Amino acid sequence: MIEALLTPEVQKFIRDHENDDPATLMLRAKQYADIPLKEAVEQIQSRKKAKTKLPTWYSATDLIYPPPLSLEQSSSAITAEYKASLFSGEKFVDLTGGMGIDFSFLSKSFKKGFYVERQDNLVEIARHNMSCLGITSAEFYNAEAEDFLNQTSEKFDLIFLDPARRGNHDQKVFRIEDCEPNVLSLLPLMKSKGKSILMKTSPLLDIKGAIKDLGGASQVHVVAVNNEVKELLFIIDDKANENPTIKAIDLTNSEVGFEFNYEEEQGINLAHGNIESYLYEPNVSILKAGAFKSIASQFGLIKLHVNSHLYTSKTLANNFPGRSFKVISEISFNKKELRKAIPNMKANITVRNYPMTVDQIRKKTGLTDGGDLYIFATTDQTGKKVVLCEKA
Question: Would you give the DSSP letter of residue 297?
Fold first, then answer.
C-alpha cells in the first residue's frame, strides 16, 4: 500500500483535499476511481492533525502518516522534543519503534539510532519516513525487543521503550506487567545493554506501584500539556532507588516545574483549614505526581481537606504552579442568590470533593459556561462550601 500512496497523483490528491470533509470525499468514490480512497482519506485526516501536533512531519514531502487514532494517541512534537532534551550521546535504541515519532526526535540527540519493531509493515513505513525526514544514521530491525537485545553486541547510551498498553482483547491496561513487551522480565537484559533506560507509560499508571515493580528509578517525570497529563517517563540508571526524584512539569506553562520525593512528602505534617482570601488549584501534573503536601509546604499554603486538593492563604502566593484565585464570597446554589451574585449567569465551575458533578450543578442552577467568574464547589474543615472567585 505504501507504493500506491506515494504515486504523484495520490500525493497531489492528499494535498489538494486537505481541508475537505472526509465523509463527503468517501461519498464521491466513483469520481476518484483511480485513487485508493479509504487509505488516502485516512492520510488526509492524519496530515491535518499533524499540522499542529507534528509540524516537522507535516512539512515533509511524501510522508506516510499513522492512522488518525494512532496519531491522536502518539507523542506530539512538544512531548517528543522534551524526551529528546533529556539525553544525548553516541547510540540509542527504540525497542518499540511503532510509527517512529519518538524515534525521529530522539535521533537528533544521538549520532546513531537503532529502530526495533516487531510489525514488518511498520518497519517499512518507518524506514521510508525517516529518509523523508532527513534521518540517515538509523538502522532498522524487524524483531521482538528481547530477541534484538539478545542478539546485538551493541551497547547503548539510551534504551527507549513505550510498551503497548492493550491486552489480548484490545482492552486498555495500566499496570506495567500487563504491557508488551514485558518490561519487568526485560529489565535485567536492558540494564546489561544500556547506560540509561527511558520508559514512557500511560498517564493512568500508578506511579508508586510502578517504582516498586521496577525495583526503583532515578527520576519520574509527569509530563502535562495545557493542564492535561500526557505521559509518565521513568528513568532507570545506576542511580535508581526506591525514592526517586519526581518532576511535575507542564510544557505549555513555564511556571510549572515542581520537584519532590515521596519520602519528603510523607514526612510533612500538613495543616488543614477553611477557605481564606485566596484559593489555589495545582496543575494536574502536580496532582498526578502526588505532591499534595509538598506543594502546600513549599508555598506556605493551607490545604482545605485531606481529599479536596485545593489550597488557601490570607495573602497571595507568587508564582504558584497552577491556577490562583481571589475569593469574592461564599454563595449558595439558590437561583435567586446566584442572579444577584452573577447577573449574566455565566461562570466556570470546578468540583473538588463535593457530592455533585459540574453537569448536575449546571442543570440545577441554569448557569452557563464561560465568563470571568469561577465557582468552586468543595469541602473544607467546616463542611461543604461553594465559593465565587475571580482570577488572581
Answer: H
Residue 210, SS3 per DSSP: helix
At 245, phi and psi to the nearest 5?
A: -70, 130
pLDDT tens figures, 304-360: 999 999 999 999 999 999 999 999 999 999 999 999 999 999 999 999 999 999 999
Q: What angle do CA 224, 98, 189 make, to 5 degrees?
A: 90
Q: Give how far Cα 52 sits from Cα of 34, 72, 283, 310, Å.
A: 30, 12, 23, 33
DSSP assignment string, 218-251: SEEEEEEETTEEEEEEEEESTT-BSS-EEEEEET
Residue type, 69: L
Residue 307: all three cell numbers together: 481529599
- Quote the Cα angle for 66-70-72, to 5°: 110
Q: Is the peptide bond before 181 cis (omega within 30 degrees of 0)?
A: yes
Give the pLDDT confidence of 70-109 residue by residue, as tens digits: 888 889 999 999 999 999 999 999 999 999 999 999 999 9
Which residues make Cβ contacts (< 8 Å) with residue 322, sequence separation at least 6? 256, 280, 281, 282, 283, 286
99 touches 66 (CB < 8 A): yes
pLDDT tens-digit map of 150-185 = 999 999 999 999 998 655 555 565 678 888 899 999
Q: Is residue 371 classed as helix, strand or coil in its secondary structure?
A: coil
A 10 A CB-CB count for 142 gives: 17
Q: What is the pTM of this model?
A: 0.93
Indicate the average pLDDT of the chain.
94
Cβ-contact 218, 181 below 8 angstroms: no
For 151-172, b where at least 16 C-beta lie within 10 A, e where not — what string? ebeeebbbbbbbbebeeeeeee
pLDDT tens digits for range 242-298:
999 999 999 999 889 999 999 999 999 998 999 999 999 999 999 999 999 999 999
116 closest CA partner among 26, 189, 43: 189
Strand 89-94 to strand 373-380: parallel, antiparallel, or no bridges (unpaired)? unpaired
What is the C-alpha to C-alpha distance for residues 179 and 174, in angstroms, rounded to an integer?
A: 8
Give the sheet arrangement for strand 245-250, strand by strand.
138-142, 110-117, 89-94, 156-161, 194-201, 228-236, 219-225, 245-250, 253-260
